[in-house]
Amino acid sequence: MAQTQETVLEIHLDALAHNYKYITSHLNPTTKVMGVVKAFGYGSDACEVAKELVALGVDYFAVAYTKEGVALRDAGITQPILVLHPQPINFETLIDRCLEPALYSPRILKAFVAVAETKNQKDYPVHLKFNTGLNRLGFWENDTSWIADQLAETTSIKVTSLFSHLAASEDLNEREFTLGQIQSFKAIAADMTTRLGYQPLLHQSNTSGILNYPKAQFDIVRTGIGLYGYGNSEAYDSQLKPVARLKSIISQIHAIEPGETVGYNRAFTAPHFAKTATIPIGHADGISRKLGNGVGAVLIAGKKAPIIGNVCMDMLMVDITEIDCKEGDEVVIVGESQSASQLAESMGSISYELLTAMSQRVKRVVCRKQP
Q1: Which of 39, 41, 54 is nearest to 12 (CA)?
Q2: Which domain holds residue 159?
C-alpha cells in the first residue's frame, strides 16, 4: 500500500475475511451468521463490508435503523436484513425495501401490524425481541400470552426469529449473570415457540457471547465488533486484525523554544526546545478532545508522538522532538501498530466509541491484498 498523502481511513477487506473466518471457526457447522453493519459498519463502510461478507457466506445482516437497511439495498445487498430499532414512521419504507423489523413492545407490534395490514402483507417476516436483563429494549417474559393473542388475530406477519441481547458477555466476572440471561431466554423461547406452533430461529450471542459461551449459539449468532478486529479482550484481540486503519500526514513542522505555547488556550507550554508536527485531523473527524494534552499519541516512523495541547476541530499537534521525520511523512492514528482499543483505553473509553466516531468527511479507501 502506497504511503498516504492525506487523511484517510483504510478499509482492509483481507482483515475482514480473516476475522470472519476466525469467528466462524468457533461455530457449529449448522449455526448461521448475522453480520452487524450498523453505524456505517462500525465507522468503516457498511456497503463495502456487506459486499465482502456476502462473498464470505454470511446469512443475515443487522442494522440499527431503517435508513441503514435502505443503504444496503441500494448497494445491491439482497440478503435478509434485520432492523434492530425501527420506528413506526419508517414502517412503510421498511416494508417497501423488504427489511425485517425487530418488534420489541406492544406499541411497536400493534403499529407494525396496522401498517402491514394496510399494505396487504401476508406472513411478513418479523423478529420478536425479549428483555432478559439488559433493560434497554424488549418484551418481558410475561408478554408471551398477549403476543400470541395478537398474532392469532392477523395473517399479515409471521415470526422469523426470537432473540435477546447479552449485557456483559465480555466480562467473565459477570458469568453468573450471563448464564442467567441465557437460561431466561431458553425459557422464554420455549414458551413462545409452543404458543406459535412452529419453530422460529433463536439468537442471543454477540461477538463476546460467541467466544465466551460457545454452548449458547442457538440457531444464529450476531457478530459486530469482532468482524472489525476487536474481541473485547487482549487474548481475542491478538487473534483478530483491525479492518479500519486511520492514517494522515505531517502538514507542517515547527521548532518551539522553551516557554512557547501550542494550540488553543495555550494548553501546552514547551519545557525545552522542541519540535512539533501539525496533523490534518481533529475532533470533527472523530479524534476526541480527551486525547489531547498528552493523553493520546500517534505513530510516526514507528514511534509514539504524544498529542500536545488541545485537539482542534480540524487539526492536532504532536511532539516529534525525538523522532526523525519530515513534512509529508505518514502518520498512523489507528492500525495494527496502535489499535482502536489501545487508543480508546487511554481516554477511558472503548473501541466501539472511537471507531464509530470517525467522521464521514474522512476519505474511505478500500484495500485488498493482491494474490
Answers
A1: 41
A2: 31-228
The series of mean pLDDT values per 10 residues for the chain, 371 residues long, is: 88 97 97 98 98 98 98 98 98 98 98 98 98 98 98 98 97 97 98 98 98 96 98 92 97 97 96 97 98 98 97 98 97 94 96 96 89 43
Return the CATH number at 260: 2.40.37.10
Residues 248 and 220 in one domain: no
The C-alpha cell of 149 is what? Answer: 393473542
pTM given for the model: 0.95
Residues 198 and 270 in one domain: no
198 and 159 inside one domain: yes
CATH code, 41: 3.20.20.10
Residues taking part in catalysis: 38, 264
